Amino acid sequence: MTYRAPISDMLLSLNHGAGLKAALEAGHYGDFDADIAAAVLEEAGKFASDVLAPLNKVGDEHGIKLEDGKVTTAPGWPDAYKRWTEGGWNAVSGPEDFGGQGLPLAINAACTEIWSAANVAFGLCPLLTASAIEALDAHGSDELKTIYLEKLVSGEWTGTMQLTEPQAGSDVGALRTRAEKQADGTYRIKGTKIFITYGEHDMTDNIVHFVLARLPDAPAGTKGISLFLVPKFMVNADGSLGPRNDIYASGVEHKLGMHASPTCTMTMGDHGGAIGYLIGEENQGMRCMFTMMNQARLGVGLEGVGVADRAYQQALSYAQERRQGRAVGKKGDGSDAIFVHPDVKRMLMRMRAQTAAARTICYATAVAIDVSTRAKDPKVRAEAAARAALLTPMAKAYSTDIGNEVAYLGVQVHGGMGFIEETGAAQHYRDARITAIYEGTNGIQAIDLVTRKLAANGGASVWALLDELSATVKQVEASNDPAFGTTGTKLREALEALTRTSKWLLERVASAPNDALAGATPYLQQFGATLGGCLLASEALAAKAEGLGDAPRYVALARFFAENIAVQAGALERTVTESAESVAAADAALLGS
Amino acid sequence: MTYRAPISDMLLSLNHGAGLKAALEAGHYGDFDADIAAAVLEEAGKFASDVLAPLNKVGDEHGIKLEDGKVTTAPGWPDAYKRWTEGGWNAVSGPEDFGGQGLPLAINAACTEIWSAANVAFGLCPLLTASAIEALDAHGSDELKTIYLEKLVSGEWTGTMQLTEPQAGSDVGALRTRAEKQADGTYRIKGTKIFITYGEHDMTDNIVHFVLARLPDAPAGTKGISLFLVPKFMVNADGSLGPRNDIYASGVEHKLGMHASPTCTMTMGDHGGAIGYLIGEENQGMRCMFTMMNQARLGVGLEGVGVADRAYQQALSYAQERRQGRAVGKKGDGSDAIFVHPDVKRMLMRMRAQTAAARTICYATAVAIDVSTRAKDPKVRAEAAARAALLTPMAKAYSTDIGNEVAYLGVQVHGGMGFIEETGAAQHYRDARITAIYEGTNGIQAIDLVTRKLAANGGASVWALLDELSATVKQVEASNDPAFGTTGTKLREALEALTRTSKWLLERVASAPNDALAGATPYLQQFGATLGGCLLASEALAAKAEGLGDAPRYVALARFFAENIAVQAGALERTVTESAESVAAADAALLGS
């Protein structure tokens, strides 16, 4: 079955849960308005259903081929990419000075979910290009921008991010690729990068690589890393393509999922070294890379949301078609759709509620980033920047945890058919798996949340957010709507547990760092479950306030989340605050030392 | 890396957590003793490491081929199967009258874990043969037993279980395959079965199919199903093979995992119908099939344990080799094994603790089945049968949930390498996925637990088990060993929560069945987490009592489980008892009706 973008869910999430409406009303978005948002999402949904979704399975089955250093993508992919750029989809939130439409990142976030749901392996390519655009726009010289930025924004050329080396994964500082300055101001780069997404492909004439490398006299670790722009083909002064640069795909990975996305080993230096141009200053590469990584992390979170929604739609459809057994109380011949069985309902409700929560966490991150760059008041910008920083690890990790869980349940709803590749449920399950790993594993995100985001300003970002969530819970309690069930109570308890847990961690980040680190992952889960529950509740309240006909279904979703997922917050508090010793015992328990 | 059977863990689990030692001391096992158990497991471990484990990846990569109705298995597989039968491994717990060794099922359960860990797709074949043996032994005529049983016990021939049809999956009663009685007393069977594991292969000369079919005048639903033995080749009076029977593999599935195990569509009737022999009585097929299914369910649970342990061993090894970053407090150049990071320790501890808990739940089920057939006192047998019935759905569902979770974490520990197929972690993740589905989905198991096992005797089986677990918790509390941390408290709370939840469900199974069914899956999770925690604690106590040098590591594992996993029991109680309405709201929330 195909994919249909859930536009009304997305708009409710964007406008209310994520705060776009409030930001619009505060004037942060200039003359952009909610009607434009709706129109863009409608069109994006059509393009995704018509062009991208039908290629998802084709891509999975065909994969890609590497021959003589050239990668061939699956049938139909180059043409789809052409239509993608022609439709202006690559340029949605690109800088207007370089041909972009300058739409809010929040809109692009919703679009990213749509591309990921339709075809996550396809959507990954522009996701990396977007990061490249951002780094170049923020840190590149005017000359480099003039040559490269417009073509990256339009999508005529794509971008890559090249950090990883065999010995340098999560530990980026361990990279060894070398860059030597030449008399003409360029650099010669030699080394090998692995796991380079779309490092080589046949969808565009040129590829612009962003490569982290080390100068000969650079300090050790992350302080000695510089960022270089390394084009696949050199670019002449008139913009035409010049000679081939010395950066080649020397291998591609055989992966669990994302078969259509080429994951390349890139070799530089077999022919004297690749020519690269410094981005930003020498030894400041990590700073530039972090610019790229934050948005890339949000993008990967949105991949989790997208794959989850696709898996949910497919499972719901199957559950309505597949007939097995009878509903309780029904007798006689015949059978009912499996949707009637409470256990199947539970799975589907969990899938949809988790997906909706992750969606809003991601969109809220995007709105915060928007406000951090668009608001006029520096204080508002700073607060939004802190909010974005706090939300980013959750947008990435919670959403991709959910992408995996929902894809798992999607297979389960299909029963035996779920294990058969032709059904398609298994592809979502395989594709989703990498999202919890790349752009910083979810463990790294959890550590970032505890050590940098929670601890950065004595917890101020967290307290500010919890105050807002608490206000939402008060509204739920005040609504006295029996359809909310025990939503208010459950969320209140979750918030109190999260407050206590945050304080406990804050007290230990510096004094007992291993204890804090041991609690990082359950803390992120606890935070996500509490935040997600409150955001869904705020959307349900908004739907009621606006008199939406669908308000009861949003109330039901919020209630399900509160009573089944947010309710775990208390247990997770205990895991964080009472189990550090049990984790530290791993040396004795697992190694016998 | 290869697999090494964790013999000392297995023996502690078997003897203490699972209660083999007590059953031996009570005389239920005759002259079998614990030394024989240890010797068998040692040998099984060697065979698994030497012969089966090296073929696991080969099987995954080569898969199987179907040409002209014949299935070719992966290179080395027929030879390994030959060595398997020659080593007597097929006959471990087979009936002695037909060449079996008659060892306890508990020993075979441990062996099944070993085979599954080494090569789950291989181990699946004898698992189904074992079920066939059981059904034939329990319900077959003496004539059929004489012809078929010895060769099934030795493994010279393999068996299949044929229930599923396109419209009849979980709803077995919907099957349509027809059987008509012939003048000679045999039956002619026509129909199509799907998802038939090892329905066709090249490892043995003959295959003995056990097929569910419907007689022309049979009542509708499950009451009109009969079980037939349908050989691939007819068997002459002298035991030699006769003509080919009319049952053919007409297709094989392209699956997410278990690539080496042929999953066949079986067609009967293209040449007049397959000749079948009735097992048991007409229309009593479901009764016979349940005999097969209970052990098959335990077997699948052990697949979950096996794959989990394999994934754990591989992840632990990687975590000790792979160097990234520094331990907290370490400065300067160089990097540490990722094992030093608390978040990695948490993942590995969770993997091992969950695996150990699932193992003991499965072994305890096997011991209960043994006692239910071996004890002299009918009361002891009946109590053991009730215990086995209660534990079976948990052995199946909890262990396979864990198999999937642990394989997921195994990929995560590997980071980006986990997503690369060559690493092998992804194979475990793919292979594990089916275990939560086949032999009754885990949702079906949860429903069985609530509606049949809990409710069967007014909860008596549950109360008896909880009393035993409570005694264990008392011992933990009395031990005053600080290494247990808060294990006693956490398990006590979990037990109390489980007691309340069980009562709540019991009150509703009849009066509000949809509410009870909505809570089935979280109840099974809650029960598993509580039971697993108590069983690990009992093993830790036993290890201390026996003065094992490894006692501290078992205490640490039990503590980790209690403080991180059993601690969820309270939240799961609330999910069961307070969220039925939120599940029922699925109609409105998901379908808008």
TrEMBL record, chains A, B:
Segments forming domain Acyl-CoA dehydrogenase/oxidase N-terminal: 40-156
Family membership noted in the UniProt record: Belongs to the acyl-CoA dehydrogenase family.
Alphabetized UniProt keyword annotations: FAD, Flavoprotein, Oxidoreductase
Positions of the Acyl-CoA oxidase/dehydrogenase middle domain: 161-268
Keyword check for Flavoprotein: yes
Residues of the Acyl-CoA dehydrogenase/oxidase C-terminal domain: 283-449
The keyword Flavoprotein is annotated on this UniProt entry: yes
InterPro entries: Acyl-CoA_dh-like_C_dom, Acyl-CoA_Oxase/DH_mid-dom, Acyl-CoA_Oxase/DH_mid-dom_sf, AcylCo_DH-like_C, AcylCo_DH/oxidase_C, AcylCoA_DH/ox_N, AcylCoA_DH/ox_N_sf, AcylCoA_DH/oxidase_NM_dom_sf
Name this protein carries in UniProt: Acyl-CoA dehydrogenase
Reported cofactor(s): FAD
Pfam families (UniProt xref): Acyl-CoA_dh_1 (PF00441), Acyl-CoA_dh_C (PF12806), Acyl-CoA_dh_M (PF02770), Acyl-CoA_dh_N (PF02771)
Annotated EC: 1.3.8.7
Segments forming domain Acetyl-CoA dehydrogenase-like C-terminal: 466-586
Molecular function terms, GO-annotated: medium-chain fatty acyl-CoA dehydrogenase activity
